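Researcher: Sequence recovery benchmark, item below. Answer with residues only.
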């Protein structure tokens, strides 16, 4: 797996990451969603550098100019519900991509810290032999991403796979490296070292879904 840790190099991305982490600023759910969206735009721009291109003639009012344009047939798939703002950020740049949505949540059968991932909903176009961008803002244990990918490829495997996330734990990265194809790309804004006993990233930012859309039952 190729890991692209974007905040290793200073850029305006750091401002967006700081604001989604800040316990005071993140109380504004509108700003939180917009910052996740902007992070998606930055990650999408960086990801675009690794796509395939071919030269095309573009007709202007005064002549013709050759411009390199992407040739990838992209499907953008986000994990509900937390992935929606990240999905929108990517879609702002890959506006001709096909769209897919998949659900995943942690089920605690014994009401303790152990959990299993439940995938109940998947709506998607044909994915086989296309370029799949799989978006989920928090890569904590990595179990959710593995579960949704296993559900997706039951209908055909993509030609190229790019995972797009905002914050990851090192443990989660190690887990998905062991379960995804070797040629997978991970585009990550920030990496944290630890998980707590509940499997949440430390220091992280909390629950991205709740901060975006409100607390759930």
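Model:
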């Amino acid at each position: 797996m190729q890991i692209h840790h974007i905040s290793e190099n200073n850029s305006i991305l750091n401002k967006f990451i700081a604001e989604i982490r800040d316990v005071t600023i993140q109380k504004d759910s509108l700003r939180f969603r917009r910052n996740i969206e902007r992070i998606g735009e930055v990650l999408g721009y960086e990801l675009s550098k690794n796509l395939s291109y071919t030269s095309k003639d573009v007709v202007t009012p005064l002549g013709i100019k050759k411009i390199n344009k992407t040739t990838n047939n992209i499907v953008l798939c986000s994990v509900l519900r937390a992935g929606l703002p990240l999905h929108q950020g990517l879609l702002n740049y890959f506006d001709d991509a096909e769209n897919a949505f998949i659900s995943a949540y942690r089920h605690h059968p014994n009401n303790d810290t152990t959990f299993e991932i439940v995938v109940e909903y998947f709506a998607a176009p044909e994915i086989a032999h296309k370029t799949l961008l799989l978006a989920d803002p928090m890569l904590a244990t990595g179990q959710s991403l593995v579960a949704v990918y296993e559900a997706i490829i039951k209908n055909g495997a993509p030609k190229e796979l790019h995972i797009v996330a905002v914050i990851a734990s090192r443990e989660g990265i190690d887990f998905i490296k062991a379960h995804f194809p070797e040629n997978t790309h991970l585009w990550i804004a920030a990496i944290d070292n630890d998980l707590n006993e509940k499997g949440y990233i430390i220091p992280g930012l909390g629950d991205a879904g709740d901060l975006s859309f409100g607390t759930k039952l």
